[in-house]
Amino acid sequence: MIKKISIILILNILIFQKVNTSENDIYKKIDLFGEVLEKINKEYVDEINQSESMDSAINGLLQSLDPYSAYMSPEIFNEMQTETSGKFGGLGIEVSMESGVVKVISPIDDTPASRAGIKAGDYIVKINETQVQGKSLSEAVELMRGPVGSGIELTVRRRGEKKALKFSIVREIIQIQSVKSDLLEKNIGYIRLTSFNENSSSQIKKRINELERNKETKAYILDLRNNPGGLLSQAINISDFFLDNGEIVSTKSRKSSENRKWFAKKGDLISGKTLIVLINYGSASASEIVAGALQDHKRAVLLGENSFGKGSVQSIIPLKNKGAIRLTIAKYYLPSGKSISEVGVSPDIEISEETDDFQIKTETDNQLNYAIKLLKG
Question: Domain residues for 41?
Answer without folding.
Answer: 4-64
